[in-house]
Design brief:
Number of strands: 5
Shape: elongated
Number of helices: 5
GO biological process, one term: tRNA wobble adenosine to inosine editing
CATH superfamily: Cytidine Deaminase, domain 2
Pfam families: MafB19-deam
Largest sheet: 5 strands, mixed
Organism: Domibacillus antri
Helix content: 40-55%
CATH topology: Cytidine Deaminase, domain 2
Number of domains: 1
Protein name: tRNA-specific adenosine deaminase
CATH architecture: 3-Layer(aba) Sandwich
CATH class: Alpha Beta
Oligomer: single chain
Radius of gyration: 16 Å
Distance between the termini: 53 Å
Structural class: alpha/beta
Function: Catalyzes the deamination of adenosine to inosine at the wobble position 34 of tRNA(Arg2).
Length: 159
């Protein structure tokens, strides 16, 4: 089931990529039903908090009519950052499933694990590496194209 819902998160990430956003997608599931989905919009909105996870949490809260997202699973293509991990904990998501690890900001096991830290009053089960290669390649290819585009722009300025 995790792979099925991760594929839906990947579809959300592709929507972000179409907008020139970093391709990160998230889906929140309750009782095997998608209650929200979102993708990264930070460049579009020029707002630091419009990460896929936060947007999905906001929509899920609206869908259930509560800030408590108990008995839900959040699927996200990239390991949550500290900001998103905090929101996940505070919204009481039970389980987080992510694709690619984030060596620069990952707080679900890579740099630290905020989600399973028993010093907080809530913890989430964390499942990592679901469709990790597909999630990771999407990001790798996106940044490779971005670097190539910047290189070409510099070259045009020199001419």
């Amino acid at each position: 089931m995790d792979e099925f819902f991760m594929k839906l998160a990947i579809e959300e990430a592709k929507k972000a990529e179409q907008l020139g956003e970093v391709p990160i997608g998230a889906v929140i599931v309750k009782n095997n039903e998608v209650i929200s989905s979102a993708y990264n919009l930070r460049e579009t909105t020029q707002n630091a908090v419009t990460h896929a996870e936060l947007l999905a949490i906001e929509k899920a809260c609206e869908a259930v009519g509560s800030w408590r997202l108990e008995e839900t699973t959040l699927y996200v293509t990239l390991e949550p950052c500290p900001m998103c991990s905090g929101a996940i904990l505070l919204s009481r998501v039970d389980r987080v499933v992510y694709g690619a690890a984030d060596p620069k900001a990952g707080c679900a096991g890579t740099l630290m694990n905020l989600l399973e830290d028993n010093r907080f009053n809530h913890q989430c089960a964390v499942i990592s590496g679901v469709l990790a290669e597909e999630c990771g390649m999407m990001l790798t290819n996106f940044f490779r194209r971005l670097r190539q585009k910047k290189k070409e722009q510099k070259q045009q300025l020199k001419e």
